[in-house]
# Entry
Amino acid sequence: MESAGLGRRVAAIAIDWGVSILVARLVFPQFGYLTDEGSIAILVVFAVEIILLTWLTSASFGQRLLGLRVLSLSGGRLSLGRVALRTLLICLVIPAVVYDSDGRGLQDRAAGSIVIRA
# Structure
């Protein structure tokens, strides 16, 4: 399995974040866009989207659009717990921007996962 490039991964997370903003604005219109409540709503929508889609389809919405998949190192789907751990670390940002020579972020190393081109 070959790890996906950094450019596609960044583009996929940007797509996921943009979609999360749109969904949060539609579902929680009572929260202002640049308020603390609005920011938390966006983050919650982002986390739920990533967890559910990655667990069910091995790719978030943005990853699916860009032809990426998240798999365990053995090649199978990740368990819900491993997907949740990976997503929590992505939401913390720092683990997602620190990566190794194989292009795997700290969130992928902790979850035993790899992002590949599908």
User: Anything to note?
Assistant: The chain has one domain: 6-117. The chain has six helices and two strands. Residues 6-117 form one domain. The mean pLDDT is 91.
